Amino acid sequence: MPRAVDGTKHKDRRKKIIEQAKGYWGRRSTNYRIAKDAVTKAGQYAYRDRKRRKRDFRRLWIARISAGAQAEGLNYSQFMHGLKLANIEINRKALSNMAIEDKLAFSQLIVQAKAALN
Questions:
Q1: pLDDT band at 4 (very low <50, low <70, confident <90, very high)
Q2: For the residues 17-45, what does the mean pLDDT come to?
Q3: pLDDT tens, residue by residue, 32-84
Q4: CA angle 96, 98, 100 (to 5 degrees)
Q5: Which long-range CB contacts under 8 A does 55-59 form with residues at least 24 apart?
Q6: What are the CB-based long-range contacts (under 8 Å, 24+) for 85-91?
Q7: ∠5-11-16 over CA atoms, to 5°?
Q8: Residue 73, phi-psi category: left (phi > 0), alpha (psi -120 to 50), beta (remainder)
């Protein structure tokens, strides 16, 4: 019995990879062998960076909070410790947003944190 080399399953599997590689540079987007490796690697990067994104955003929020707190004379760790002592539970994303957009409310939080530290 002859071996099928151009069946629909075979073609569909290759077509799927080529469609995923759309927009890649050079032969990575047209040549199946090379596109297969490129798509696999892209999937590995995507998986890794979905985890990484959470870390990166937390670092960004902490940097923003730190800058806002230092403008008021506190460092980040003292500010967060003061909030904890004052029983103020607010997440870093909201604090970061507040430090940028609502400086008045952020400075009131700093006053409360300083009071709790003393």
A1: confident
A2: 96
A3: 999 999 999 999 999 999 999 999 999 999 999 999 999 999 999 999 999 99
A4: 75
A5: 57/93, 58/92
A6: 85/113, 85/116, 85/117, 86/112, 86/113, 86/115, 86/116, 88/112, 88/113
A7: 150
A8: left
Annotate 66-103 with DSSP letters as a single string. Answer: HHHHHHTT--HHHHHHHHHHTT----HHHHHHHHHH-H
| The pair of three-digit structure tokens given for residue 24, joined into one six-digit string | 């890649």
* Fold type of domain 8-117: c-terminal domain of poly(a) binding protein (1.10.1900)
